[in-house]
Amino acid sequence: MNRRSVFTLLLLLLLHLDGKAQKWEGLARTPQMGWNSWNRFQGDIDEDVIKGIADAMVSSGLRDAGYTYVNLDDCWHGRRDSDGFIQADPERFPHGMKALADYVHARGLKLGIYSDAGTETCAGRPGSMGHEFQDALQYARWGVDYLKYDWCNTADVNARGAYRLMCDALRQAGRPIFFSMCEWGDNQPWRWARDIGHSWRIGPDIWCSFDSTRVFPTYVQCSVMDCIHRNDSLRRYAGPGHWNDPDMLEVGNGLTAGQDRAHFTMWCMMASPLILGNDVRSMSAGTLAVLTNRDLIAVDQDTLGVQGLRLFSRDGLDYWFKPLAGGDWAMAVLNPTRRPVSCTLDWQDFNFTDGEVSGRSTAFDKHIYKVKNLWTGRMEGKTSVRPKAGRRLTVPAQDVVAYRLIRQK
Hints:
The chain is of the alpha/beta class.
């Protein structure tokens, strides 16, 4: 390494030890939205794939719906140069990451990249351990906007220290970069990472199943319902600038239409990052309709920034509420079972105060709300202050009914 590089790294290390650096503020006032390569492509990525995805994000309307990040996951790495700076794989990305970032930026999108806090990434590419400040500088030079930072090959590493180190490195590199912590919830990052990361994974990787856990000798993969169950007790830790991340979306990867609706609805109800995991170049019209449901995206991106609450479960159905800015509420009736379930909504069953997070009360006994179905787009009357004046509905198997309850002034 040349003298200039050594001096730069020593200076950055001293700044880190001084303890003043923190994550970039203002990048996550609402949960991030974008696309990631892993769920669909695993490590089989190259610049043509990423360029095609970026083009499709624009032509499909996904960008205009709010999905702005195009994120590379594992397997973009090449070797480090003689000074220790990471390079892109020259066969997969022959024009380099700066050219790819320019291509993505020219389409009104942002480029995300992936690394690991360990010696190697999960797929065996060079990790960032011992090169944190160099890697952050390289990402800034390339024009990267987002870093997903994984947790493989980290034996005897302190998680809080490792993620703080990369947070400081990103800050000192001088370019605002979103920091997505992928620590799998092993060290309960929701308890300590608010000033370090913009979002943090709360569990293992998701896979394309609605309710079946996949178990391997050394790790597990979570179903949609596994992710919901892991996240529904963590809502007090989420808010503007710091979000619980139950992992990327599997919408469009083989679930049924009802499961896709339920999956997307619940991520929006939980104020989760909306990171697409499908091949957007060839998705069906049905998949696109789910992913661009503007009413539900508005629930996810609501500026109040409160993660939804599972109020209770009854007769196989889960009843969820999410307070929204301006006095409205989002409501979802989730059917996780494999059979249709009918119920009668008596609004007086849902009088409660969200004392844990928002302090907001539904007050159905005092206030009337207009009811908008968020999947059909139709207005379905109003709530009533009278007991037993509800509505009868049937929720199909592994599907959802979702409403926006619009408070009358």
